[in-house]
């Protein structure tokens, strides 16, 4: 089923799953907390894109409203998350997540 | 088929820059490539006729979230020299894990049965009038609650970044 | 049919580009002349009659100066910074309606590059991307002063974007449309929006001054106090791009103020003058540019009249005065709209 001229829905599914796995890869691959945070944003984004594609497929606005809420949550999450990162940096002088091992058994 | 070409161009840009986000050495380059990825995603939104979401996506992600990221990177003065790296074994393991996850996702989603749609219509669902009616109709309460979320996030951010709190 | 439309759009885009650049070019000259008049001096009067060729002389100077990139600078980003600054400020002109419709033969030509139905969101998006030019330029210089200047400039722009957005939301609530063409058409039928939104206009004006980094909010540059802001390390045409983008921003924001709050290309009693069709459209365009030039003059007038704010005063004004005022404005607008629609009955 084509959702826009010449592009089937499957293409969007492929694109979004690839973006999502790249996000997961980034979380596993990097040690800098900021970059990990960015990769989480990337994953949220791929989900958003898939929701919009499905909303186009079913001609339904509800999915787009959900995307709107996800954006709101992402914005709130980033503001708090970056504040926490700043606190971590102030106490440990690094953004390396491996430095935060005080609670490690 | 201009939409097809646009789709492939935007897809290529998005995936290429997403990979560069992960593999660039310098955090500020990661952030800049992420901005390009976000613009490509916004392009996809416009292609899917979700104009309002496309514009909001640019304003929220490129205009607010990434500015905050770059701001923090600049303030902490992170660069290539202080960038921590994992050992090569973990890097390879991470790549394999990410690749396998991607494969599983693609293989699983490729075979999904999509629901039958009785009527396929392009009735301008992404336009701001339609979306506004849905948002302030059925989703009125969640919308109000999201404002409380924002307020708490704001208070939290201010509280966390204060230096001396007793 | 389609090709006529496309050719017309290309011509219009080029025309808007040229007009924007020429106006910005002569704004640099006008600024020096206005400063001279306000300070009882002559101003530039050597190059050409009345100093009219001064901007070209400045341009030649900018182009022929030595192009210097600091040794430890990030070269790609160092070039990218001014380019983004220039790109974003030129993109805004696409949604501004420059005049009424022109009818030639069977074709109706709109004097607006594109009348998208999310025009105001487009504007906010472009403005918010404009911050990157400054941030990237300041970071890439690899200089403490540039970095601090960039941080100052970007936090100023981010802070004032919020109040600006809130002021625009009140306007959008009133007009019920995000398309600039529609907002201007509504002002033709009724009164100009300034009558209904005086507080919103004031907030928008102050924020426009801060967004363009103009006096009294020119802290990023502060030419008489600091070495320079985010563009300390830039030279030649890269510096020229930064300075020039400020003047283009000034022109565009003047056009926006005129469009959103002062009726755009409409003027009072335009339908009782006895002219219509193409003649009226041309007169409207001339009137619109008259309004724009007035606001550009106003920018310069303020620059040479009001002293610069201190940085904490700037932040206090933005966060503790303008944002609460904008929310109050939003609240009042909402109540009035509620009354009009019979919500309280």
Task: Please explain how this structure is put together.
The complex is a heterotrimer of chains A (105), B (166) and C (345). By secondary structure, chain A is mainly alpha-helical. Chain A contains 3 helices and 2 strands, in the order ββααα. Chain A has a single domain, classed as Orthogonal Bundle (Helix Hairpins). Chain A has helices spanning 9-29, 33-58, 62-92, and strands at 2-4, 7-8. Chain A has a two-stranded antiparallel ribbon. The N and C termini of chain A lie far apart (52 Å). Chain B is mainly α and 166 residues long. In chain B, α2 (27-47) runs antiparallel to α3. The mean pLDDT of chain B is 85. Chain C has one domain (81-97, 115-340). Chain C contains 11 helices and 2 strands. In chain C, a hairpin with a 2-residue loop joins β1 and β2. In chain C, α2 (54-64) crosses α9 (236-261), α5 (144-175) runs parallel beside α11 and α9 (236-261) crosses α10. The termini of chain C are far apart. Chains B and C meet through α2 and α3 of B and α4 and α5 of C.
Brief overview, please?
The complex is a heterotrimer of chains A (105), B (166) and C (345). By secondary structure, chain A is mainly alpha-helical.
């Amino acid at each position: 089923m084509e959702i826009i001229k010449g592009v089937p829905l499957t293409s969007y599914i492929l694109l979004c799953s690839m973006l999502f796995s790249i996000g997961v890869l980034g979380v596993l691959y990097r040690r800098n907390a900021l970059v990990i945070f960015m990769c989480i944003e990337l994953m949220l984004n791929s989900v958003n894109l898939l929701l919009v594609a499905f909303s186009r497929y079913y001609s339904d606005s509800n999915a787009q409203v959900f995307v709107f809420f996800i954006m709101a949550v992402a914005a709130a999450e980033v503001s708090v998350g970056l504040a926490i990162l700043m606190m971590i940096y102030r106490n440990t002088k690094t953004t390396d997540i491996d430095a935060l091992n005080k609670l490690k058994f | 088929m201009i939409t097809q070409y646009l789709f492939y161009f935007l897809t290529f840009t998005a995936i290429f820059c997403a990979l560069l986000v992960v593999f660039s050495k310098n955090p500020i380059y990661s952030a800049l490539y992420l901005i390009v990825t976000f613009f490509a995603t916004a392009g996809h939104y416009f292609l899917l006729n979700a104009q309002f979401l496309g514009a909001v996506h640019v304003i929220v992600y490129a205009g607010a979230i990434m500015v905050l990221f770059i701001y923090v990177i600049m303030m902490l003065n992170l660069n290539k020299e202080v960038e921590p790296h994992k050992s090569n074994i973990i890097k390879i393991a991470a790549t394999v894990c990410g690749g396998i996850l991607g494969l599983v996702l693609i293989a699983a989603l490729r075979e999904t049965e999509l629901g039958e749609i009785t009527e396929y219509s392009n009735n301008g669902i992404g336009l701001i009038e339609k979306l506004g009616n849905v948002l302030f109709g059925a989703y009125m309460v969640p919308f109000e609650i999201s404002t409380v979320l924002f307020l708490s996030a704001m208070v939290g951010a201010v509280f966390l970044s204060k230096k001396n709190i007793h | 049919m389609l090709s006529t439309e496309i050719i017309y759009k290309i011509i219009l885009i080029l025309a808007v580009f040229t007009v924007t650049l020429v106006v910005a070019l002569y704004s640099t000259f006008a600024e020096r002349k206005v400063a001279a008049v306000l300070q009882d001096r002559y101003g530039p009067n050597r190059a050409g009659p009345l100093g009219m060729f001064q901007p070209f002389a400045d341009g030649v100077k900018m182009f022929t100066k030595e192009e210097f990139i600091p040794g430890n600078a990030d070269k790609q980003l160092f070039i990218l910074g001014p380019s983004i600054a220039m790109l974003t400020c030129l993109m805004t002109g696409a949604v501004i309606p420059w005049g009424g419709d022109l009818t030639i033969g069977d074709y109706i030509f709109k004097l607006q590059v594109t009348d998208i139905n999310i025009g105001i969101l487009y504007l906010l998006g472009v403005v918010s991307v404009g911050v990157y030019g400054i941030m990237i330029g300041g970071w890439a210089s690899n200089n403490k002063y540039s970095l601090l200047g960039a941080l100052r400039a970007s936090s100023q722009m981010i802070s004032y974007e919020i109040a600006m957005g809130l002021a625009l939301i009140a306007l959008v609530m009133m007009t019920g449309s995000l398309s600039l063409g529609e907002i201007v058409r509504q002002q033709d039928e009724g009164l100009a929006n300034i009558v209904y939104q005086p507080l919103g206009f004031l907030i928008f004006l102050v924020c426009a001054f801060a967004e363009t980094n103009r006096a009294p909010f020119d802290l990023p540059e502060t030419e008489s106090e600091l070495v320079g802001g985010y563009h300390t390390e830039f030279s030649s045409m890269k510096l020229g791009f930064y300075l020039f983008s400020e003047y283009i921003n000034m022109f565009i924001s003047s056009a926006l103020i005129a469009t959103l709050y002062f009726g755009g290309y409409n003027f009072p009693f335009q339908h009782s003058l006895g002219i219509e069709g193409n003649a009226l459209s041309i007169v409207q365009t001339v009137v619109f540019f008259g309004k724009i030039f007035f606001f550009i003059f106003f920018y310069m007038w303020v620059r040479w009249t009001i002293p610069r704010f201190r940085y904490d005063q700037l932040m206090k004004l933005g966060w503790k005065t303008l944002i609460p005022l904008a929310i109050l404005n939003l609240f009042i607008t909402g109540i009035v709209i509620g009354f009009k629609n019979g919500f309280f009955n």
